[in-house]
Structure formats: C-alpha cells, structure tokens
Amino acid sequence: MTGLALGLGVGLGLFVALTGPALAQAKIQIGCTATSDCASAMVAVDEGIFKKHGLDVEMTPIAINSNIPAAILSNSIQVGGPTSTVFLQAVDGGLDLVAIAGASVMNPTSNTAIAAFVRNGITINEPKDFVGKKVGAPGLNAFLHVLFVKWLVEKGVAPKSVNFVEVTFPTMADIIKSGGVDAVLTAEPFVTRMTNAGIGSVGARYGAELGRTDPIIFYAAARDWAEKNVATVKKFREAIAEAAAIVNSDRDKASNSIAKFTKQPLELVKATPPNQSEPNLKPENLAWWIDVMSSQKMLQSKLDTAKLVLN
After folding, report:
1. pLDDT band at 35 (very low <50, low <70, confident <90, very high)
2. Are 276 and 248 in contact (CB under 8 A)?
3. In the CATH scheme, what is the code of domain 109-210?
4. Measured torsion, CA atoms of residues 120, 125, 127, 147, in degrees rounded to the nearest 10
5. What is the C-alpha separation between 31 and 45, in angstroms, rounded?
6. Which of 45, 243, 270, 306 could form an S-S bond across to 40 if both were Cys, CB 3.0 to 4.6 Å?
C-alpha cells in the first residue's frame, strides 16, 4: 500500500492544483488500457456518438490499470476505466472516486478469453505447478491478478507461493519470449497473438473456471467533478448506452474501434469477440468484488456500495 499511497498522494496534490481550470474545460479525456473493455467509449468516439450528445471526447491510452485513479485525480483524464478491483482499492485508500457508467462485464465468452499464458519450457498441468513461478500481471491488484489469486485459493494454492510482477499488455510477448517471466495473466487478442508467434501456450483458463458475471471495468470520475458536471455525466451515460448497443451487435464497428485504440492488427481483433458492454451499473454489482478483495485482505475498511455509484 505504500507505493499506491505515494502515487495517489501525488495525484491528489496535482488534482488540487488543477481543479479550477479543469472544470472550465469542455474536452473530456477518457483513459483506458489496451483492451476491449472500454469498447463502448472507443465506438462512441469513432462513430460520433459523443459529439451527437454534445460532448468533446478523446481516448487516452494508460499502460497499467492501477495508474488510472491517480490519473483521474491529477486531471490528466476526467474519466477512467479502472477495473473493479483497482477502483475499490483506491476508494478504500481514501480517494473520492465514483462510478458513473458501466463498461464491461464477465460472461462465458469473455471468461474463456482470459488465460495464464506460459512460456516455452515451462510445464503447467495443474494449479500447484504455478508455485515458485514468476507471473506477470497487467497491474498488481487489478482485475486479472485478483481473479487469478481467487482461482489459486479455490484450487488450494497459496498465492504467496507465486512471484507476481507487473507487465503491460503490449510488452507481454517480448517478456515471455525473453524468459523474463514464466507466465503472464492476459486475455484475447494477446493470447492468440502469442500462441501464433509460437512463444508459449495456455497454462490455465482460470476465468472460465470461475465462471463469474460481475463487472470487469467501468467508467469512473472524481466525485467532485461528477457532481459539478451532472449534465455532462447524463450525456456521457446516454452516449455510452448507445455505443454499447453497437459493441454488442456490430462486430465490424466494434473491432475497427478496438484495433484503432489498442493498435492491434484488425484481423486479430475481429477474430476475438469483444467483451460484453453493459452500460448499466448498480451498487450491488460490486458486492462480490468487495467480498473477494476483503478475503484477500486488500481492503481495510467496510465499503458502502450505495456510495460507490453516482445516482
């Protein structure tokens, strides 16, 4: 928590310094990592849906999901797409963030796309084979990491017996190939891309084994900004709902936007269904994550779900 607190403290200081002029800006920067989870925002930008709703929006790539809360509070971005786990830990740490709209949720398709990808030369036949291995996660305490730890616990493996390090999505293939880590926690289209490159294989489909339907990523903002921009948040939600319908029904449009933002080959993105977009987020949707994180001793306080989602 020391590193997190330091990073967030810097974010808070910058936020205080920049709040005044930021509130007068019409442009909204949305920060997300290079996955399909923020596809609704990507489509809303590319298809002119935000503009139709009177919003001037740009997408900003964020390398590590756990950096998003500090980016929001430093006003580098006004809206971010943190994973449920990153958001909850940031709020637990004292940051006044609030969810303003849903982005993606787990479902059978997205769960199957999640994997622990293992480099050549490493054999994983069962969960206990991860003991002593160096495993890269795209954000410690972020979605894929917490989900994997939950899976290890359910399989009777002590998470502390695994050495976790942070590895960004774009660098996973190079780090796996070089032997810098034994495995990475990743998802499509990165799984297919690394498989096709012949640098390793899937060691576990842990998302599918857990089989959950909870939120993966949602759009969040500083509570102060959201409450002072109620009309903007309303337009944002309407635009995201319109774009989510496209993501869930038009593979071509969704794939084009995802490929453009993530800089992944279009043919590879088209081969992988995007995560299901669910714009409606309710406080109770976060209850399972709170239980899981509490069991992993990631939360120090008792969070009130009613205060986590903007009315």
Report:
1. confident
2. yes
3. 3.40.190.10
4. 60
5. 13
6. 243
The answer on pLDDT for 21 being more than 70 is no
Residues 6 or more apart from 286 whose CB is under 8 A from it?
84, 88, 99, 214, 215, 305, 308, 309
CA distance 289 to 108: 18
- Domain extents in the chain: 2-106+214-307, 109-210
- Whats the size of the chain, residue-wise? 311
* Contact present, 214 and 106 (Cβ < 8 Å): yes
Residues 6+ apart with CB under 8 A from 39: 104, 243, 247, 254, 257, 258, 274, 275, 277
| pLDDT tens profile 210-224 | 999 999 999 999 999
Residue 174 burial by Cβ neighbours in a 10 Å radius (0-12, 13-18, 19+)? exposed
Question: What does residue 309 show for φ and ψ, rounded to 5 degrees?
Answer: -120, 130
- For tokens 């993606």, the residue is 104
Query: At the topology level of CATH, where does 2-106+214-307 sit?
Result: D-Maltodextrin-Binding Protein; domain 2 (3.40.190)
DSSP 199: S
